[in-house]
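Problem: given the chain below (256 residues), write out its structure.
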Amino acid sequence: MPDVGNARVDDPTDRGHGHGLRGGDDTHLARIAPGTAAGGRQPFADRRDVRTDLVSRAGALGPAPGGSGNAYALEYYKQLVPNAEVTLPGSTCASCDPKELSPANTWTPQNLAELVERLGGAIVVTHSQSGIMGHHMTRILKERGHLNLVKGLITLEGSCSLANSGLTAADFDNIPYMALKGDYTATSTVCQETVDAINARRAGKQGTAKAEYLKLDDMGILGVTHMMMLDKKNLEIADIMLGWVEKNVKGNSSRR
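Solution.
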C-alpha cells in the first residue's frame, strides 16, 4: 500500500476482476491531499477527492443528467469493502435449495445467529446481499430451537427466498416479516411470493404475525436508491421502518 500521500485507485476500465476494479501499477494513483485525522492518523483517502479522468466500467453508470458520470467511479470504489469470508470453506444445508452454501451464506448467518442468542432476541434488518443471510440466520436459530429469538425480520432490497434458506412460510407464524424496496428497483417476485405465502396462512387462520412488502415508490416516496441509508430521505425511510416495528412487533418499545 502506498504511503500517506498516495492511495492506489484501481483502474475501473478493467473488466477482468470483481466489481470492474483492479489493482494497477503506479500510473493508477490518485493523489490524496495529506491530512491528519483524529489521533494523528492519516486518512487512507479523502472522500472529497474526485478524479474526473477516471472512467467507469461500460454499462455500470448511465448518462448523468448534467453530463458525464465518470467522476462517480472513484466514489463507488471508496464504498467497497473486501469480502474476506470467501477465503473460508462453504457448507451444505439439507433443507436448502440449492444445498451447497457459499462461505458468505455459511459464516455470516452463523455469527448473526450467535449474536441474536447472546442478545436474548433481536429485530434483524438486512440489506442487499445480506438479505438471504438474515433468512439463513433464521433457519439456524430454528435448528437450534431458538426461533422465538427472532422478534422481526426486515429485508431491504435483498433476497427473500424461503427455498434458498431452508425455511417455510409457517416459520413466520409468530415473526413479523417486512420486505422493502426503493424507487429504482423492480418489484422482487421472490419477496412478493414470500409475503403472499405468509399471508395465505393468515387467511387460513394460521399464525398472527404481520407480513408486508412495502414499495416506497407506490407510497409516493420517490428518488430512493438502493443505498437508501445514504439518500437524502434516509431519516424518512427510517421512520417508516420504526413505525412498522412499533405497530407490528409485540413488546417493542416506542423509544427511538
